[in-house]
Specification:
Elements (H helix, E strand, L loop, with lengths): L18 H10 L6 E4 L3 H8 L6 E3 L7 H11 L5 E6 H6 L2 H9 L4 E7 L2 E2 L5 E2 L8 H8 L3 E4 L3 H13 L4 E6 L13 H11 L9
Parallel strand pairs: 1-2, 1-3, 3-4, 4-8, 7-8
Antiparallel strand pairs: 5-6
Bound molecules: thiamine diphosphate.
Length: 208
């Protein structure tokens, strides 16, 4: 099964949803120790607040790295499904990664883009996706054919379930509101890395 585009839904007629609600819906679907890479700021804050899992990695400090990190994990562990959660501003800073994902085409990779049309965490300056740039069109142009806007919450559930079960790479873009994240991730990069490495069985323990 593949992630089919949901028809006529585009960047500007998709429902505006809530990132925390949808992050919780996504995490509730995870049953097979899927790895989840949360991008800088709100993407990983809401992942943290949705229930900490050893297979979660929380990117701190650098924009645009959730997808490249997820790509690396997906290539290294092809039997594990890997999900990247990234903000629109962060993806716009690192668009080249979409072409690399399409080129390597890992079947086990799903990208979810939270598009609020702003760089929310640094003062809500507008991003290009607020007006001109359609991130699904960009992803398809980069070669990720299974790219779609989520029309509403039920469509998000359907697209994410299909992506988790099917052949990727897939990209789901979601228009979201500008609600602040409900919590912030503990800023301990060494612990985040160690937990994640153990969580995906890549390391026996600290110093191993
Ligand atoms: C390379 C880099 N440039 C700028 C920043 C400052 N910065 C941190 S988060 C952020 C905005 C992120 O926007 P987006 O990914 O859309 O997420 P949102 O805040 O809207 O949830 C900016 C500009 C940074 N951390 N790294």
């Amino acid at each position: 099964m593949t992630t089919k585009p949901s028809g006529a839904v585009g960047a500007h007629n998709a429902k505006v949803m809530n990132r925390f609600e949808l992050t919780k819906r996504l995490v509730a679907q995870l049953k097979r120790d899927e790895a989840v890479i949360g991008g800088i700021g709100n993407a990983n804050f809401d992942l943290w607040a949705s229930g900490q899992r050893p297979q979660n990695f929380y990117m701190l400090g650098s924009m645009g790295l959730a997808i490249p990190i997820a790509l690396g994990v997906a290539i290294a562990q092809p039997r594990r499904h890997v999900i990247a959660l990234e903000g629109d501003g962060s993806l716009l800073m690192q668009l080249g990664c979409l072409a690399t994902v399409a080129d390597r085409a890992p079947k086990n990779l799903t990208i979810i883009v939270w598009d609020n049309g702003i760089y929310q965490i640094t003062g809500s300056q507008p991003t290009a996706s607020a007006a001109t740039a359609d991130l699904v069109a960009i992803a398809r142009g980069a070669g990720i054919a299974n790219s779609a806007w989520a029309a509403d919450e039920a469509d998000f559930d359907r697209l994410s379930a299909s992506a988790l079960d099917g052949e990727g790479p897939s990209l789901i873009a979601v228009r979201i509101d500008s609600e602040a994240a409900v919590a912030t991730t503990d800023r301990d990069p060494v612990q985040i890395r160690e937990r994640f490495m153990r969580g995906i069985g890549a390391k026996g323990g600290a110093g191993a």
